[in-house]
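Model it.
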Amino acid sequence: MYALLFVSCFEDTAPLSSEPNEDVLQDVHTLKEMLEQQSNQLQSLQEDYELLLSEYNTIIEQNQQFNQQLTDLSASHDLLTSDYDYFVVSQQERDDVQDADLQSLSSAHTTLRSEHDAFVSGQEELDANQDAENLELWTSLQDTQDTIPNVIMNDVTWLIDPSGAGDYISLSDAQTALMNTFILPSALLTLQLADGTHTLSSVVRLDHPNGDRIVLQGNTQDPSAVVLDFVASNGFQLWYGNAIAQIKNLQITGTSDHSGLIIQHGSTVTLENIHMSGFGNCLLVQYGGIAALLETNIFEGCSNGVRGSKGAIVYSQNDLTTQNNSSNGINLSSGSILDASTVQSSDNNYGLTLSTHSFATIPDLEIVNNAEDGVLVRHNSTLFMNNAVLHDNAGWGLKLSNDSQVAAREALFSNNTSGGLVSYDSYGDFFGSTFENNDSYGLFVEKTSSVNHNSAVYQGHAIEDTHADATSHLFE
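Modeled.
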């Protein structure tokens, strides 16, 4: 029966055409496009899935890192909690110790305050008693002043006037009075010389035990108005450790076979605005004596303007001038020392001589027109000088010998007859110095000398006129 039905069905159906149906083709094409779209969507979904999966894995990793950080923070928190607990306990212990220390300090302060108050009270009582005793002593001394003329308790001035108008006629009379006079430490005695010429025929010995409280002075406005003239005698003499506060503002003259001022055996004198002339040695310092020169001091027309020997010390704070002296402007020997700010030495035989382990330092030096060498340094002596000008001397500007040393910066050696500088067996450092127009050598070095003349300038007799023998050394 089924077979009959199947056959019957086909018998009623029209025969299939061999040509494609357009509707079918269109449906197939549409279906194909749908399949392609679905395939693309599926591909996009696959990519989105992979991206989401990657992000998910990243989140999982970050979550693991966060969990690790939480674990680390928890451990740090536990450690900080432990440290805090320890700090709280330690701080409490420190607070307890500090409280104990404060209590101890407070107790000590109270004790010290009590002792201080007691000390102040006792000191006030002592001061009151001392004031009363001083008043009683002062009243007693005032009452007996007329009977004790040799005690000077306050600053006082003695006028020395040859006309008789002062306290004493002569410095010798005042010196005699001083022999029996005591000067209190708080007092100062001024020996005031009246204007004019004071003539003396014997030495004035400045050996008073209170000499450091004595000032001898002339005219403060015009030092030339007061003259001390020593005839056939030394002028002043100071020895055996004594001192005089000052000699100032006057002229001192004398004769060539004596000395104007002799300082020796550790004694000390201060000179200020002194003009000394005519002696054998104007200023003679020896055997450890000390001379301090203030303001402007002039030593001229002597054999030696300044003579120091056997450990003498001469200190000049301002201007030191030596001129027209027949031997030396300044002559130091036997371990003597000169420390001078400004020195001008001219028209002497030698301007400056250092010998036998002597030493000088002079920041501002001019040596000019001397008959022999301007500066002579010998026998293991030393000179330091800056801004030095050594010119127009008839000998060498500077002569070094016998293991001596000189250091100069920017010195000028000019117009010296024998030459600018000569060194025998010595050492010199003349950095930046100028050697110009010297009549012979600018620089002459021999006999194992060493001279540094770095940056030196040569004019007139130039560098080729510099001489060094085989055993010497020139450093440039």
